[in-house]
Amino acid sequence: MTVARSLSPIHVETVQGDVRTTQRGRTWEQFKHLQKGFENTRGVRLFYYNGTIEILMPGEVHELFKSIIGFLIETFLFSRAIEFKPTGSMTQERAGIASAEADEFYEIEGFKLSIEVNFTSSDDSKLGRYQALEVNEVWIWEDGVLAVYHLQSGKHERVNHSLIPALSPIDLNILSECILIGETSRIRAAQKLLDSHPIHQ
After folding, report:
1. What is the pTM of this model?
2. Which range of residues forms the domain containing residue 50?
3. Residue 191 sits in the same domain as residue 122
4. pLDDT value at position 201?
């Protein structure tokens, strides 16, 4: 007797050096087993939400942009003497529901901020998993634009500026320009950001 075995669809996408593998129809237990297999693998990021596992192997350009964004955020906060806790790509989990490893993650005066660089297909699950993890704000860099989503009434909604008080003065259009400048000069990028956001005495 032949038994037909249903295979979960696996999708692999490669863009600008990023390789993202998506597996749908997976359980939390399958995800945890896979996660254990990647414990000693540097650079690979794993995500789970709503039965979907994502495995991201970021390329050089991805890592460049995520570090520029983090550098500019930290420069801005340092210039205003605001304390913050950076935890990089530390795993955030809600058992059985969601797991994420952001490109950069910050706790700023009680608020949680995740940074994502996106070169592959847009997917609502990115916001869904951070919603499940109760992350206050998600910043997504895509196509040269920084989009900010704030958690309001249990759902991330796109906003015109950060609603995290420490970051709310930042003009997102100027910050996007600074991120692009940072590809060639972090010094010029930081100078432009600070010059464009003077501290009022």
Report:
1. 0.88
2. 10-57
3. yes
4. 53
